[in-house]
Specification:
Strand order of the largest sheet: 1-3-5
CATH class of one domain: Alpha Beta
Low-confidence stretches: none
Mean pLDDT: 86
CATH topology of one domain: Ribosomal Protein L15, Chain: K, domain 2
CATH architecture of one domain: Ribosomal Protein L15, Chain: K, domain 2
Shape: elongated
Strand content: 5-15%
Distance between the termini: 99 Å
Order of helices and strands: HEHEHEEEHEHH
Structural class: alpha/beta
Length: 176
């Protein structure tokens, strides 16, 4: 006889009978249902204290002083040193985000890349990135390379950069 619906059963030990609480003194879990007498742990819906609760003592998150501000819109720029470019792009040419990702210098999740002046660079490169340090620009231009600043990928930071550039363009020092 094959398997039929009325012969199906779970594996031995796969199911366990529910503990029946409050069903008399003979059941070992009668009257107070195994919770002892009174107290916080005997109350309904008590499944351990909430996170950070220290029994009424002033909890750690309220004892410690609060300082500073966390900017929810901050985006970290992924740093790349010129020395790293020297190792991977000796032949010269153009270095953009796709090229940097291709040689494994920039992870896929990095949205903003900043080129820094660390290390030595001898190859004449055209580097395209979102940000550059002033010393990196100076080093690149000194060896005959060029710099191309890419637009920031949408959102808050990009509008902040536009406002900053508009402020500097409209200032009296910029016009003279």
């Amino acid at each position: 006889m094959g398997t039929t619906l009325h012969t199906l059963a779970p594996n031995p030990g796969a199911t366990k009978k529910k503990k029946r609480l409050g069903r008399g003194p003979g059941s070992r879990t009668g009257k107070t249902s195994g919770k002892g007498t009174k107290g916080q742990k005997a109350r309904p819906d008590h499944h351990g204290a909430r996170a950070g609760f220290e029994g009424g003592q002033m909890p750690m998150q309220r004892r410690l002083p609060k300082r500073g501000f966390h900017n929810p819109f901050r985006e970290e720029a992924y740093p790349i040193n010129l020395g790293m470019l020297e190792r991977h792009f000796q032949g010269g040419g153009t270095v953009d985000l796709d090229a940097l990702r291709g040689v494994g210098l920039v992870p896929k999740r990095a949205r903003i890349v900043k080129i820094l002046a660390g290390g030595e660079l001898t190859a004449k490169l055209t580097v395209k990135a979102h940000r550059f340090s002033k010393s990196a620009i100076a080093k690149l231009e000194a060896i005959g390379g060029s710099v191309e600043i890419l637009a920031l990928p949408g959102g808050h930071q990009a509008s902040r950069e536009r406002r900053r550039s508009a402020r500097t363009a409209g200032s009296p020092e910029a016009s003279s």
